Amino acid sequence: MFKRECKGFVEKMMFNTSISVLLLLVFPAVISEVVDFSKCSEFFFEGKSPNITGMLVKSQSQNNQYKTICQKYKNAYRFATLYDTTNRIPVFSAYTVTVDKEIKRPENTWMNEPQLEVSSDEMGMPYENQATDEDFFNNSYSVNRGHLFPSCHSGDEVIAGSTFTYTNIVPQKISFNSGSWNRMEIETIKLMSVHCRDKKDNKVLAHVLTGAVLGKNKLKLKYRVTIPSFMWMTFCCYNNKSPFSKAYWAPNEDEKGDIRINEITLQELQENLIKNNTKVTELFYKHCT
Fold first, then answer.
1. Where does the ENPP1-3/EXOG-like endonuclease/phosphodiesterase domain start and stop, copy by copy (predicted)?
2. Helices of type H across 152-286
3. What domain range includes position 244?
4. Segment 148-186, tens digit of pLDDT
5. Between vectors from CA 208 to CA 167 and to CA 190, what angle results, nearest 5°?
6. 115 to each of 88, 109, 171, how far by Cα in Å?
7. Dist CA 59 CA 20 (whole Å)
8. Which of 89, 96, 134, 204 yields a CA-CA distance of 20 to 30 A from 15?
9. Is the pLDDT reported for residue 195 higher than 50?
């Protein structure tokens, strides 16, 4: 029986400004590592990260704007993220789905990544290269914090806790985040748990990529954090020892009613990404074939 909580509560964005500023001074930091993805290759299908012209080739960033982060939490790597420091949102997060059990969303404190910042002796210096609580406070765009690696796709409570970092979230329309996107997250974990196994067909294993894409109208929270126009997710795994994949693509827009995000092929996803200036040459090793 599947019972997962991807959006367990409504985010409380209305809080006192003075308290929010104080939080910036003592904001918890996740000690990840800004290193090439070869250090955490286990989160990519066959150990190979995507190739995106101008962003990422052979596990290495192609532009100082984009940082490769091996997300370390409680002394172990938990997932991987390609992060855009100019727009202050992730390009994608990569992770594995390995178990089928109920994982409730923890009420963790949101964390920042100190290695993305230039060191400063000035007390209370805000984070220059990533989002903070203050960016989302009292915003006029009806967005909240949307996970790329959702806590409900994690294998245990520790991994679930690791997803609460600002390098893993984008500004997502509230109705979309809690609506069709949330339903897709729940549906895909069911799909992966049933159809995905490791190469030896012994246990559940799927390699997942979830990302965000900028549009022509680059709206920004507090003139800092860009709101993506589209979001996408895809996974690759073995089914009966043969590669198996699904993909999803949706606009980051306000929605009403019971909207469903339909499955598309991996090829269709790559075409959508290319049309929107994300020049993907390969998402999964050998295109998951």
1. 76-276
2. 157-162, 174-177, 180-195, 266-275
3. 17-288
4. 999 999 989 999 999 999 999 999 999 999 999 999 999
5. 120
6. 14, 19, 22
7. 36
8. 89
9. yes
Bridge partners (DSSP) listed for residue 81: 69, 93
| Mean pLDDT, the chain, integer | 87
Tokens of 129: 């290269």
Residue 155 forms part of a structural domain = yes
3-class DSSP state of 98: coil
Instruction: Kindly indicate the confidence band of residue 115, based on its pLDDT and cuts at 50, 70 and 90.
Output: confident
CA-to-CA separations, 237 to 39, 91, 115, 209, in angstroms, rounded: 21, 22, 32, 12
Q: Distance between CA atoms of 166 and 40, rounded to whole angstroms? A: 19
Would you say 135 and 226 are in contact if contact means Cβ atoms under 8 Å apart?
Answer: no
Question: Is 175 within a domain?
Answer: yes
CATH label of the domain that carries residue 53: 3.40.570.10
Residue given tokens 């790597």 in the structure block:
77
Domain count, the chain: 1
Residue 245 bridge partners (DSSP): 236
CA angle 233/250/151 to nearest 5° reads 45
Q: For tokens 């904001």, what's the residue?
A: 27
pTM summary value: 0.89
Tell me the average pLDDT across 120-145. 80
Amino acid at 206: A
Residues 6+ apart with CB under 8 A from 71: 30, 32, 40, 77, 78, 79, 80, 81, 93, 162, 165, 167, 168
Nearest 5°: phi and psi at 226?
A: -75, 135
Does a structural domain hold residue 6? no
Which has more confidence, 269 or 218? 269
Structure tokens that stand for 25 in this block: 């001074």
Instruction: Pull the structure tokens for residue 157.
Output: 């409570």
Confirm whether 57 is domain-assigned: yes
Place of tokens 């979830």: 210
Scan for tokens 């938990």, then name that residue. Answer: 78
Residue 212's closest CA among 96, 90, 129? 90
